[in-house]
């Protein structure tokens, strides 16, 4: 089935109707013109298709629940994931930019919040200037549910679709007829919705299509295995064997925390807890819940039962984490700590002779510094989707080797986080005062101690990374080769991480180093492989507010290769010529900026050296004077330096302008 729709066939009222939904979950249909009102769904970590058009968000048809992003990001496996002011430019927008340019999605959703004082749904800078004009997006932008506050302003900003409908199409019609909204702009947004309907038509025409739940289940299990991060494994306490003597403690082993709350809630096709996985393997283990998942005080009887169970076995697997009520869409966590009653139980169990293995369940990082020394092994399990129980058993019993890496640093204290002072802000405003110094970019730059660094994750085998070779491939590009070897006795995967560190002075504050490339490599025992990376200009660039563009400075850059941001195995240096995009100098540019400029520097230096003024030559020979004038605009030097200095400055400015005019021609 093929379909095409033309906005020119629609009336003004029909165009307006397309820019709002038909109901809570459907696009607006236009039967007279054959335009269907397709049902739309979201998929935070699996399909969330509503049971009815008026149904609540947590009532959806069964679908495979894959690990949420909190866990999947720790897989560092793009292939697996494919299966399932400056800070904004360098930190918050690049992930969206990459998806738009490489995956070409059909739809994008804007958020609820304001960005720099403007609601996202009305933000022309984001929706049109950046998303459409700069990145080339040609699909549909819809509002998050209830995020559209002004139909006309939103459509003018680049929003196609308001969801759910506010039944205010007349606002669009009146705005067009009154000249407040250009009809060609409405036509463009409506045509994009018609194009979406046409793209979807072939899939909707497939009769009797059914997906393979078993195949999806297998992918979900593989994703969960790769999402887990082995943070600690003293004396190789893991993996266990099926016949090892161990006990299981913790309600999370029985009641899995497998997904987030709110509108990310999926109705899974099936579920496995860790206890389910043991039964599936035919393994018997003594179990004690240890605690409840509510806010009630700890029950002494539960503690006693858990301690008694642990005391009878050589190893205790303790499943702890954050109850679902601790984190959800719609509100922020108030602490990074696991509930106190669970930690008190952990400390009590640590006093027994039983070796203690801690398995975590949480939607984002938790503080471990207060208890990690009491654990012999720690698995960060995040939220693992519907197959999390079986996947955890795969790791615990060694059917799979851990390969996850932390996608976020784990601080020693919440107060160590660079956003601690600024968040949550006040009076409806949050100041992103940390700028580009987010996560490891901050911790590594200032040398702040962390419990576990960005990119960290252990394995049941060992690896070496060496034989680094770095070569410039042009003024702003470099090629990197490095050899990774499995030096252990088990097959496993290592994620080779490439960080770039600018070595010279910079006109902007830059992090110590930044992750610019990575690759996950699976190797058998003793196997080696050369891994290659091509680093383009963006790997070396920063966002220049003055240029309104990315800028690569000339100079030396260290290329660091390792297994985490703090485990660097090899470092090489590459010298780049940069993009040559220097800022145009003015009278108000500082002396230091003039000297550093590739055009202005030689001109000013020649003007100084050509002067026979004793005052000028005395200034150049006096280090204190030269240090003092570095941040003086040239116009101030003209005013305060006397006639001789003024003559040198005016000569340099005139020659610079003449040279730039010639270059522009």
From TrEMBL:
Keywords: Carbohydrate metabolism, Glycosidase, Hydrolase. One of its GO terms (molecular function) is beta-glucosidase activity. The keyword Iron-sulfur does not apply. It comes from the Bacteria. Pfam families: Fn3-like, Glyco_hydro_3, Glyco_hydro_3_C. The keyword Membrane does not apply. SMART domains: Fn3_like (SM01217). Residues 494-565 form the Fibronectin type III-like domain. GO terms for biological process: carbohydrate metabolic process. Homotetramer. Belongs to the glycosyl hydrolase 3 family. PANTHER family: BETA-GLUCOSIDASE. Catalyzes the hydrolysis of a non-reducing terminal alpha-L-arabinopyranosidic linkage in ginsenoside Rb2 (alpha-L-arabinopyranosyl-(1->6)-alpha-D-glucopyranosyl) to release alpha-D-glucopyranosyl (Rd). It is not able to hydrolyze alpha-L-arabinofuranosyl-(1->6)-alpha-D-glucopyranosyl (Rc). This is Exo-alpha-(1->6)-L-arabinopyranosidase. It comes from Bifidobacterium minimum.
